[in-house]
Design brief:
Length: 160
């Protein structure tokens, strides 16, 4: 019973401060469902809902579900969320220089259609520098990909 009361008090304390705080959970279905709600529990539910089923990634890449399509942070978030769930598929596609997963990653990163062929070519040519080991994490892959892109005259603009 004490734990329940303590949890309720903590929730009430955070509820007041969260109403004035910025959106900590980003965009997606969870942010839409729990809009106007406050407190740690509601933020946790919204964040969990945003991250489930790829709806936040979809919202970011499509500019729907309360997400901005052209923001730098949003692009990284979309790429990060997609890569986390599809690291092996992206590796397979990147190793051959094309495929649905690599195309989706390019979209999530905001790569323009005119630059996608170059993106695919550079990613394939630098596969070993991007996927540095069999235990590489999705964050490491994105960091390595960013470094490779920064060294390419056409793709460097996407890393700024």
């Amino acid at each position: 019973m004490k734990k329940i009361i303590l949890s309720a008090l903590v929730g009430v304390m955070y509820a007041g401060s969260a109403s004035a705080a910025p959106n900590n959970v980003g965009c997606g279905l969870g942010s839409m469902f729990f809009e106007g709600s406050s407190g740690v529990m509601m933020e946790s539910l919204a964040a969990t809902t945003n991250g489930s089923s790829g709806n936040q990634t979809f919202g970011i890449t499509s500019g729907t579900l309360g997400c901005a399509k052209d923001g730098v942070v949003q692009k990284y978030a979309a790429a990060d969320a997609f890569m986390g769930a599809n690291i092996d598929k992206v590796a397979r596609d990147m190793s051959v220089g094309n495929g649905e997963a690599l195309e989706t990653l390019a979209d999530a990163m905001g790569i323009k259609d005119a630059d996608k062929a170059r993106f695919f070519e550079v990613a394939k040519a630098n596969f070993d520098a991007i996927y540095t080991s069999t235990s590489v994490t999705s964050d490491e892959v994105l960091i390595n990909l960013g470094k490779v892109m920064a060294n390419d005259h056409k793709l460097a603009a996407y890393t700024a």
